[in-house]
Amino acid sequence: MLSPRFGNSYVISVISIVLILGSVAESRVVSSKIESFDYPAINCRKHSAVLTDFGAVGDGKTSNTKAFNAAISKLSQYANDGGAQLIVPPGKWLTGSFNLTSHFTLFLQKDAVILGSQDESEWPQLPVLPSYGRGRDAPGGRFSSLIFGTHLTDVIITGNNGTIDGQGSYWWGKFKKKQMKLTRPYMIEIMYSDQIQISNLTLINSPSWFVHPIYSSNIIVQGLTILAPVTSPNTDGIDPDSCSNVKIEDNFIVSGDDCIAIKSGWDEYGIKVGMPTQHVIIRRLTCISPDSATIALGSEMSGGIQDVRAEDITAISTESAVRIKSAVGRGGFVRDIFVKGMNLNTMKYVFWMTGAYGQHADEGFDPKALPNVTNINYSNIIAKNVTFAGKLEGISNDPYTGICVSNTNIEMAANKKKLPWNCTDVSGVTSSDVTPQPCALLPQKGKFECAYPSDKLAIDKVQFKTCNFKSSNLF
Ligand SMILES: *[C@@H]1O[C@H](CO)[C@@H](O)[C@H](O)[C@H]1NC(C)=O
Ligand SMILES: *[C@@H]1O[C@H](CO)[C@@H](O)[C@H](O)[C@H]1NC(C)=O
Ligand SMILES: *[C@@H]1O[C@H](CO)[C@@H](O)[C@H](O)[C@H]1NC(C)=O
Ligand SMILES: *[C@@H]1O[C@H](CO)[C@@H](O)[C@H](O)[C@H]1NC(C)=O
Ligand SMILES: *[C@@H]1O[C@H](CO)[C@@H](O)[C@H](O)[C@H]1NC(C)=O
Ligand SMILES: *[C@@H]1O[C@H](CO)[C@@H](O)[C@H](O)[C@H]1NC(C)=O
Ligand SMILES: *[C@@H]1O[C@H](CO)[C@@H](O)[C@H](O)[C@H]1NC(C)=O
Questions:
Q1: 90-95: long-range contacts (C-beta < 8 A, 24 or more apart)?
Q2: 0.90 exceeded by pTM
Q3: Alpha carbon nearest to ligand 3 atom 9, residue
Q4: What is the CATH number of the domain that holds 346?
Q5: What is the pLDDT of residues 11-48, one digit of tens each?
């Protein structure tokens, strides 16, 4: 198991305590009228700047792409000297895509709104992801995300519930009319990076996926309110993709696609890259997504998915709970998945596994590459107003095995189908306290609880420090 490497934590926390003590008496107002404030983060910064120092105009109309780039380029010089933080003050800051740097914090104050530009020339193009082999919307390249980072160490995007608004309607319209020649931008994408914190923000109307860490490790995503119309295309909330050691906690998501989708690459491309997503803890998630899953595993899972734990999950008017999606040609595995504690209201499928998800990157997929789906444990589930209790569909000659369900009470909707469970090509067990009575492939074997790991993931042991912004630290 990887262990988190959160830098010179001891040294930096001592410095931050000194800064806090120093700021108690003097809460000064500076030229940019920002008083000093504290916030929790994995690492604190020695240097600070305010976006307006770089000529930014917060009128919602002026493009600030140059200001963001100039600010971050300047602050990148302090990466090896205690790092730097960039404060985005109240205002509407229109911008195209910009890149983050290492040992850096982007802090959005309350009433700060970053607005995604609708001018395509403000979005650089990037090559396709190696584990996907093509873009999700079109075969060629893709637009860089609104906030992008690659090969970084220690990067934080946080705030006092400031907002990032992707103004996605422009992109959704083009996508629906099949006019996209490149794949739409994501809101935040961080690649090949270590030590990432994204917290306490409101993210709205992403052009496509909202938060996409890929080929990265030691990631905390906490306290996000993510909102998109439930009809908007592919607006997944949080998609850890080929990532290790991930904590996703206290998030509220309303979206047009999966609230959380755990991924690891697509067919032969994902198999070749071979980077699993593993050691993930998701807790206290609330999801509303009428046409998608609360938590999806796949369908791009060709690098493997293992050791995913989900606790205290609430979903309302959501199509399914924890859904496993795969297909012939994907290869890879989904194993050691643990779900404990779900409260569900109005749902089509509580348990849903799919073995024929279709959608291939191209015709080059290997029909002999079968996914190995095994050891999936669910317990403590209460669901109301449900259409199907379980639709569990494995792959013939490649059954999904080791499925365990305990302590589950599903109240079927008035219009419920005659058959609450439909299982094919799966095997496993259920305990006697599962209602309605499960399918024959999941026989009830008396009273027991499906095991849940008792250890803590390394990412769960990371402690936040109290960091501080002080106008006297400008540059
Ligand atoms: C951001 O980084 C990507 C990948 O390295 C690069 O292609 C792009 O030009 C960079 N954007 C800016 C504004 O520097
Ligand atoms: C953050 O803002 C959103 C949108 O206004 C709101 O729904 C949410 O409750 C706020 N979160 C906190 C912690 O104040
Ligand atoms: C987020 O905000 C909440 C409420 O204001 C605060 O308790 C928490 O420490 C903050 N956490 C992070 C990681 O920003
Ligand atoms: C039950 O679910 C149906 C949709 O399947 C919905 O129209 C109805 O409002 C729900 N009823 C309650 C009491 O939540
Ligand atoms: C699937 O994975 C499990 C657990 O790693 C292993 O025991 C089993 O042999 C694998 N099955 C196949 C068909 O490879
Ligand atoms: C059960 O599921 C299988 C496979 O998805 C499907 O072919 C079959 O029609 C379903 N049976 C019922 C009664 O819905
Ligand atoms: C799931 O729970 C069952 C019953 O407690 C247990 O036998 C099995 O080992 C558990 N699976 C994993 C992957 O721990």
A1: 90/58, 91/58, 91/59, 92/58, 92/59, 92/60, 93/51, 93/56, 93/58, 93/64, 93/68, 94/60, 94/61, 94/62, 94/63, 94/64, 95/63, 95/64, 95/65, 95/67, 95/68, 95/122, 95/146
A2: yes
A3: 40
A4: 2.160.20.10
A5: 333 333 333 333 333 333 334 568 899 999 999 999 99
